[in-house]
Amino acid sequence: AQSVSQHNHHVILSEAASLELGCNYSYGGTVNLFWYVQYPGQHLQLLLKYFSGDPLVKGIKGFEAEFIKSKFSFNLRKPSVQWSDTAEYFCAVIFNTNAGKSTFGDGTTLTVKP
Amino acid sequence: GAVVSQHPSWVICKSGTSVKIECRSLDFQATTMFWYRQFPKQSLMLMATSNEGSKATYEQGVEKDKFLINHASLTLSTLTVTSAHPEDSSFYICSAQKQGGEGYTFGSGTRLTVV
Description:
The complex is a heterodimer of chains A (114) and B (115). Chain A is mostly beta strands and 114 residues long.
């Protein structure tokens, strides 16, 4: 069955630490990949997306993600986190690019200590 | 940009009553909108795909008679929770994609509390 898994449920970092959040999916076909962020009390915002081309994708706020097809992974990275990055992060995958519906991972709560 | 407006932001209703939630694409037309449900500290679960001018497509396990979806125009989809019960209390979120665009824009969500 098609699924999305985020291995880290809660990550706690100090400011300036590097961040990597894992996202894996199970599906052998073409996918569209997304990372969304949900700040406390706010709605989902798109951080970055991958549809095709360069597997290293740069998004907003200094985030980037790398699509590794052989590993079915799309990990999110940031070299130096800030307190304001404290939020919930969701990986999402569109398995059937014609249907357009997204399947979300369970989310990772990131807490950055000042 | 692509903006999706969702209304109301929060609603409290009595058990047994119905609640309508609106999702509007403000600056683009959306032939397809999606409705999600998010329980506290959990991920978003797709409930249904709303198709303009036709019936919605519901995910397995979602009661179509309880969660009525109407997509009468290219800019508006509504979700009506009928005969709401406390277990329907949740955060409901819609999303839409601008035609020709990439990625999806999410509404700000509706917090439904059934008492």
